[in-house]
Amino acid sequence: MATGSVFAQQDSRNYSFQDSVRLVLENTKSNEAMAVGAAFQTAWSRLGPDQQLIIRRQSQLMKKKGYKLRPYMVNYFGALASAVTIENATPSQLNDYLSVSEKVLANENLNQANIFFQTSKDFFEYHALNALKGFTLKVSNDEYRFDYLIPQVDTLQTYTEPDTSYYNQPSWQQPIYQPELSGAVIKFSRLTLNFITPYDSAFLNNTSGVFSLRDKLFVGEGGRFDWTPAGLSSDSVFYDLTKYNFKTTQPVLLAQQGKLTYRGKLRSSIPGVFEFRSINHKSKQTASFPRFRSYEANINIIGLSSDKLKYTGGFGLQGKYINSNSVEGFPATLEVSDASNKKFKAIAM
User: What does pTM read for this prediction?
Assistant: First the structure.
């Protein structure tokens, strides 16, 4: 059977559109294509008449533009099948997705469109922003919608009194400039991200953001990352993020602005730099991530301040272990006074 019959409403033997798709994919003898064909046939009856019409039209357009059956059409139909049969996407979410598909087909080349369909398929199938062997970035507790972003055109603006007050602010209070995303995206009003590797299952809870399906980039704001990967209590040690972004293809998360809370060690939350990387380690006790470095080197640490004891330095964490690291890089000092008020000073380089 010719691949062109995929795009016809019926072929010479009066196959329905969904049956035609299934039969053509079966004829590839590819296990993946055959599974997609069967799933798409099942999903078809759960689509509304308007959605079915859009899918027929998009299929015809893809044929006209020279999209091959594999991998392009397999990913296209696979994404739709997974959206309906696995993700159980709402009619509104499906409408948004089909609208974005229309814009992708109109504005992007074949390879870019295929990345969109493949990434969408993975999202619908695994509810994850990455689903490759060795690293899954699972999404939960989320609300989302698909959208297509158009790059903003820079315009010249004249300011009579520009605001330069932030120039004198500390680096952790400077504005954070996020990457500008364009093309097909998923907008999350809320979500929790679970970084799953052979070594870790770590969570960024209660965040929000926008995921680029083409660039595999997540641009986020807010959320909390705790130190359970290193065996510490989630209620006692955690970092609250502000704005951040990261590539979803690697289990790596960096944040330049945010605050660490360590109950029982710090009197208040302190600003600093956060880093998480999932690397090989045998147990939580030997984990060297997450990591933290305070911006300032004048941290008030509980237990290291009294009439006879004075600590001056930063506060850092490498896994569960505390150190004196700070972004400023100044050495930490510990001054001890004895009964005769004689002082001894130790310096950590």
Answer: 0.90
End-to-end CA distance of the chain: 74
Query: What's the rounded Cα separation, in Å, for the pair 317 and 312?
Result: 17
The per-residue pLDDT for range 176-207, each reduced to its tens digit, is 899 999 999 999 999 999 999 999 999 999 99
- Distance from C-alpha of 237 to C-alpha of 212, rounded to nearest angstrom: 31
pLDDT tens, 13-55?
568 999 999 999 999 999 999 999 999 999 999 999 999 999 9
Chain centroid to CA 272: how far?
21
Token digits of residue 97:
């997705």
Return the ∠ at Cα 276 (arms to 275 and 277), rounded to 5°. 125
pLDDT at 4: 43
How far are the Cα atoms of 22, 39, 218, 295, 317 from residue 238, in angstroms, in the given order?
50, 43, 21, 16, 11
Please list the residues that pair with 140 across neighbouring strands. Answer: 192
Distance CA 122, CA 119 (A): 5
β-pairing verdict for 224-226 and 183-196:
unpaired
Size of the chain, expressed as the number of residues it contains = 349
**Paired sense of beta strands 270-277 and 258-262, if any:** antiparallel
Q: In whole angstroms, give the CA distance from residue 287 to residue 290.
A: 8
- Backbone phi, psi, residue 213, to 5°: -70, -20
Q: Measuring CA to CA, how many Å separate 9 from each of 53, 95, 319?
A: 10, 21, 59
